[in-house]
From TrEMBL:
Signal peptide annotation: none
Magnesium as UniProt keyword: no
CDD domains: HAMP, PDC1_HK_sensor, PDC2_HK_sensor
Official protein name in the record: histidine kinase
Keyword Cell membrane assigned: yes
Location of the protein in the cell: Cell membrane
Enzyme class per UniProt: transferase
Transmembrane spans: 6-23, 35-56, 68-86, 98-115, 127-148, 160-180, 207-232, 244-264, 559-580
Assigned keywords, A-Z: Cell membrane, Coiled coil, Kinase, Membrane, Phosphoprotein, Transferase, Transmembrane, Transmembrane helix
A GO MF label: phosphorelay sensor kinase activity
EC number assigned by the record: 2.7.13.3
Length: 693
């Protein structure tokens, strides 16, 4: 979950930064005056998810303060989302002006919910229902209008794809974050909640929210950060320099991510295996401690039973049955047993048995031993020989432990179940040991009742971290001891888990702690191998339990270390990408600038690129082209100048000829005019002459 919350928060933070860094005067969304609200939603919601991460990691900080901040940031971030959707819609479509401040009602609902309940669960659910969900729907409507209101603009396929991605993801996120809530006895939270969602899908809802956040970040990166609106055309921001920077950063992050990812995966697996092995070793060592303690107890008594001092009273007791038949022996023992049960502590019968030298030694042994609650000897027929104290019965041959220990004269070590001894009232276990002669003949039985708390002392002081504790299970899965009394008991271990424990000598598993809300416990176990009593199938298991969060805390710390390394390396790669992008694009930009100067007629402009690569060769060719263009231009000017001079001379000659022609024309025209006038005068004179006649 920590990894999910990390990338969940990171995605929204990146989305917020992308939106807030938009060049709004040049961007395709320049008319969205409220886009900054969506950016603030990304920033605040990303921070809120990281606060949730810190709470889960249980680090050295105030969880109370973090939870308070978490409860306040959650509705605050949703308010920015809803405000963007409402205000943008009211600005785009005048018919929706009533939506302008509708988000305030959701905020008031959150406030009233807190005032009424004085807790943050119900107000948080209200914020999701009435602020988050409507906000995502309204935001999706805003970007739908981008497509339908801008049909006159030819959008590139990548921009159109990102717009549709945003439109589809916003409602999906609205469902996952606005309607799937923590469990509560309130509205839909009873049936549509985190637990039910995980039960149906098998995956926490936070994972799907993280995926939505990543897609939204990609969508806004595609339309808001990389592309600008110029006239009627969308162009990629930054040109070739941006391409170089993006290429270098992308390749660097890809290589870095693969390298660090593989290193992290390897380190993670090694560390995880090491942690598990360490806990298995702790369980094994603890189990061996119990084994050694038990073996020492048994061997100590076995060694004593080999001594003449311990055997002699038993042999003497057996001699009194030599002349008796089996029925007589049985009757004798049962009669004494009846007297024994009724007899008080100071009765002569009791004193005779408890006052003998062997009983005194047994009393001293039990008195000074930390773990022996009761010890007594019987003869080969089950009659009491000596005891550390008054037993509940004199006749023991009818007891299961005695019969299994005597084993029809074969003799074997008996290991009983944990029980409360009727004589002493102490909780412990019965250990039966055969008393044998040197030739192996069983002559009696020794019963030792071991106080089970003796073994618990080996576990009592066991502690790992804050939640680590040791447990002891018997062969049936009953909890014999747990140093953490609030932890597991048999009823809280499922049949499948107990079967897994039963089928393996050593191992580990993870289970959900009963009574907790999803808290998981890591359990490492090892068998206590009672080598001498394996026939009785009395198998104990030592379990070392600790909170999963605490056990695998080093893995989380490893993740954060690698995360810091990745962030630092990404910053370095971005910085280097800008530097190298600048250096790589500078010659091309210089060539573009030179082409502009040449196109404007400045043939004296030269490119100063001193490199031996193709760009340098291109620069030299460009300079040579400029020189040749200038020479060509100069030659053309000379030719034009000569032609102009020749045309000038021809013009002068032509002008002189025109003047001459004009003068001739003037003389000719003058003569013609005079002839016309003369003709008119002659005609006039002729008319006058005719009149006189």
């Amino acid at each position: 979950m920590i990894t999910i919350y990390f990338f969940y928060g990171l995605s929204f933070l990146v989305m917020g930064i992308i939106i807030l860094s938009m060049a709004k005067k040049e961007d395709f969304f320049y008319w969205l005056k409220d886009i900054w609200l969506l950016g603030l939603f990304g920033i605040t919601h990303g921070l809120n998810e990281w606060i949730e991460l810190l709470i889960l990691s249980e680090g050295p900080y105030s969880s109370v303060f973090l939870r308070l901040l978490n409860h306040l940031l959650l509705p605050g971030s949703f308010v920015f989302l809803a405000a963007f959707g409402c205000q943008a819609l009211s600005r785009i479509d005048r018919r929706m002006r009533w939506l302008h401040l509708i988000w305030v009602s959701g905020l008031l609902g959150w406030v009233l919910g807190y005032i009424k309940t004085r807790e943050f669960l119900i107000p948080g659910i209200l914020a999701r229902y009435f602020i988050c969900f409507p906000g995502t729907i309204f935001s999706a409507m805003v970007f739908s209008l981008v497509i339908f209101r801008q049909r006159s603009i030819k959008l590139s396929k990548i921009v159109m794809a990102n717009l549709w991605l945003i439109i589809l993801i916003f409602p999906s996120y609205g469902f996952l974050s606005g309607l799937v809530t923590p469990e509560a006895n309130f509205l839909l939270a009873q049936t549509l909640n985190y637990e039910k969602f995980k039960y149906v899908t098998g995956i926490p809802v936070q994972f799907f929210r993280m995926v939505c956040a990543i897609f939204l970040t990609v969508g806004f990166g595609g339309i808001s950060s990389l592309f600008i609106y110029s006239g009627q055309e969308l162009k990629i921001r930054g040109g070739i320099k941006m391409k170089f920077v993006l290429l270098i950063v992308a390749l660097g992050i890809l290589i870095l991510g693969c390298g660090i990812g593989m290193t992290y995966r390897t380190s993670y697996q090694i560390l995880r295996r090491t942690i598990i092995q360490n806990y298995l070793q702790i369980a094994q060592m603890t189990a061996r401690t119990v084994e050694v303690s038990f073996d020492n107890d048994v061997k100590n008594i076995e060694e004593r039973l080999k001594s003449t001092f311990w055997r002699s009273p038993v042999i003497e007791s057996n001699l009194k049955y030599v002349s008796l038949s089996s029925r007589q022996i049985q009757g004798y023992l049962l009669a004494i047993d009846q007297e024994w049960i009724k007899a008080p502590q100071n009765d002569l019968l009791v004193k005779n048995y408890l006052g003998n030298q062997m009983s005194v030694r047994l009393f001293e042994l039990a008195e000074h031993s930390e773990n022996i609650g009761e010890i007594f000897l019987t003869d080969q027929y089950g009659g009491l020989v000596a005891a550390s104290g008054k037993t509940s019965d004199f006749y023991q041959a009818d007891e299961e432990w005695w019969q299994k220990t005597y084993a029809d004269g074969k003799g074997r070590v008996y290991f009983g179940s944990v029980e409360i001894d009727a004589s002493t009232g102490v909780k412990g276990l019965t250990v039966g040991l055969p008393i044998k002669k040197n030739n192996g003949e069983v002559i009696g039985v020794c019963k030792m009742f071991i106080d089970i708390n003796h073994y618990f002392t080996k576990l009592e002081n066991f502690k790992i971290g804050k939640t680590g504790h040791a447990m002891l299970l018997d062969q049936d899965g009953s909890m014999l001891y747990d140093s953490d009394l609030s932890a597991l008991d048999r009823g809280k271990i499922s049949q499948a888990e107990f079967k897994r424990i039963s089928e393996n000598t050593d191992g580990w598993f993870i289970l959900e702690r009963a009574g907790s809300k999803g808290e998981q416990m890591f359990m490492a176990f090892s068998v206590v191998d009672f080598e001498k009593v394996v026939e009785e199938k009395r198998v104990w298991r030592v379990l070392i339990g600790q909170s999963v969060k605490e056990v695998f805390g080093p893995l989380d710390r490893l993740f954060f270390r690698y995360f810091i390394v990745v962030i630092v390396m990404v910053i370095i790669m971005s910085f280097l990408g800008v530097i190298f992008g600048e250096r790589l694009s500078k010659p091309i930009v210089e060539l573009s600038r030179a082409a502009g100067h040449i196109s404007e007629g400045n043939l004296d402009y030269r490119i100063h690129i001193r490199s031996n690569d193709e760009i340098g060769q291109l620069a030299q060719s460009f300079n040579q082209m400029a020189v040749k263009l200038k020479e060509l231009y100069s030659n053309m000017e000379n030719q034009i100048r000569r032609r102009t001079s020749q045309l000038g001379e021809a013009k002068e000659i032509l002008e002189r000829r025109v003047e001459e022609l004009e003068q001739i024309n003037k003389v000719t025209i003058g003569r013609e005019l005079k002839m016309v006038e003369l003709k008119k005068e002659i005609e006039r004179l002729k008319e006058k002459s005719n009149e006189k006649k």
